[in-house]
Amino acid sequence: MNPAQGEQGRREGAASQAARDRVPRVDPYGFERPEDFDYASYEEFFSTYLVILTRRAIKWSKLLKGSSSVQKSMRVKRYIRKGVPLEHRARIWMGVSGAQAQMEQNPGYYHRLLQGERNDSLEEAIRTDMDRTFPDNVKFRKTSDPCLQKTLYNVLLAYGHHNRGVGYCQGMNFIAGYLILITKNEEESFWLLDALVGRILPDYYSPAMLGLKTDQEVLGELVRMKIPAVADLMEGHGVLWTLVVSRWFICLFIDILPVETVLRIWDCLFNEGSKIIFRVALTLIKQHQAFILEATSFPDICDKFKQITKGNFVTECHTFMQKIFSEPGSLSMTTITKLRESCRARLLTQGFQDGPLRRKVFKMVVLR
Fold first, then answer.
1. At what angle do helices 259-272 and 74-82 cross, to 10 degrees?
2. Maximum CA extent, the chain
3. What is the pLDDT of residue 276?
4. Cα 167–chain centre separation
5. Left if phi > 0, otherwise alpha if psi is -120 to 50, otherwise beta: which for 353?
6. pLDDT, tens digit, for every residue of 223-246?
7. pLDDT for 73-120, tens place per residue?
8. Residue 359 carries which DSSP code?
C-alpha cells in the first residue's frame, strides 16, 4: 500500500468511527444494530431521507386534520406509496386495512378472548417462541421495563382463540411483534394481525399452508414471464422457490430487509394487498439479475438470494419503494388471481402434503 492509499484508508476509518459515534447503536424501534452495520452509509442516506420524512409529515398532517378515520382513495394510495410518517403509521394501517372498522364493530371482543377457556397446547407453542422473538431488540428482553413479551403473548393467544383454523404458526410472532412496536397497543395489534392473516394473506398460516406454497409458485411463474433467464437458472439447478423465498413470504421480509424498508413495504401491503409482496420479490430479483446469473451451483444460487437482500439498495428505502412500482412493470390482481388458481390446482393435483411443509417452514423461520 502506498502512502496516499494509507492516508485515504485512515480518513475513511476516521469518518466511519465519527458516524458510529453519532448514530445511536439502538434504532428507534429498539433493534440493536449488527456488528457489520455501515454507519457512514446509513448516516449519509438518513440525512437525505429525513428531509423527505419531514415533507411527508406536513402533507399527512394536512390530509388527516379534522378526520377521525382514514378511508382508501387514490390520494391516500399515492401518499402511502411515498411514505407514512411513524407518528401516523398505526392510524393509517388501522384505517386502510379495515382493522379499525372490525375493532369498532366488536367492542370488548379482544378482552373476552383472553378470558376464555384455556388451550394448553396453544399456550405452550406460543410460550416456546417468546425468547426466540427478536433477541436483538431491547424492548422484548425480560430485563426491559415494560417487557413486550407479555403483550406479544396476549396478542398471539387471543388470535389463536379467534382463528382456531390457524391457531399459532411460527412466523406470526415476528409479525405481531412488529405490529406491537408500531401501534404500542395490544388490541390494535390483534386486529391488524387479523387483517393480515385473515384477509390480506390467503391461507399463509393455515396448517396446510397452501396459500404460502401457492404464492411461491406464483412468484416462479412471474419470474418466468418477466425475468426468464433467472427462471431457467433455477430450473437448471433444480432449486425450488420454497428454498429461497419462504422466509420472504412467511415473515413479510422481517429480518430479511432493514426495519424502515419493511415498514414502508407494510404501508403499501395494508392498503393494496398481497400483490405488494410480489412487487418486492420481483424487484429484488430483477435488480440483481446479473449477479444471480453468475451462480454456477445449487448452493451458490441460495447464497446469491441471501446477498441480494443486503446493501445500500435495500437500505435506501425511499428509492427502493419507487423501484418496486416501476421495476416489475404491470402487475394486476387479475393476473395474480389467475396464476393463483392455476398454481393451486396444480399443487392439489400433485397431491400437495401439508404437514412436511409446515414443519420445514418452522425450521426456516426459527433456525435463521
1. 170
2. 73
3. 97
4. 21
5. beta
6. 999 999 999 999 999 999 999 999
7. 999 999 999 999 999 999 999 999 999 999 999 999 999 999 988 899
8. H
pTM > 0.85 = yes
Q: Give me the amino acid identity at 38.
A: D
CA 31, CA 255: separation in Å to the nearest integer? 11
CA–CA distance, 243 with 246 (Å, rounded to integer): 6
Q: Which residue(s) pair with 26 in the sheet?
A: 32
- Evaluate whether 209 touches 357 at the Cβ level (below 8 Å): yes
Handedness of CA 264, 268, 271, 276 (dihedral sign): negative
What span, in angstroms and rounded, lies between the C-alpha atoms of 184 and 40?
A: 30
Segment 298-320, tens digit of pLDDT:
999 999 999 999 999 999 999 99
Residues near 178 by beta carbon (within 8 Å), at least 6 away in sequence:
254, 262, 263, 266
What does the block give as the cell for 165?
383454523
Q: Give the whole-angstrom CA distance, residue 150 versus residue 18.
A: 38
- pLDDT of 116: 86
Distance (Å) of CA 82 to CA 112, 147, 223, 284, 315: 38, 33, 26, 19, 16
Closest CA to 248 of 278, 228, 217: 278
Per residue in 130-181, pLDDT (tens digit) is: 999 999 999 999 888 889 999 999 999 999 999 999 999 989 999 999 999 9
Amino acid present at 276: I
- The C-alpha atoms of residue 220 and residue 242 are separated, in whole angstroms, by 10
- CA torsion sign for 216, 217, 220, 226 is negative
The single residue listed with the C-alpha cell 453468475 is: 294
330 band by pLDDT with thresholds 50, 70 and 90: very high
Distance CA 216, CA 272 (A): 19
| φ, ψ for residue 121, nearest 5 deg | -70, -40
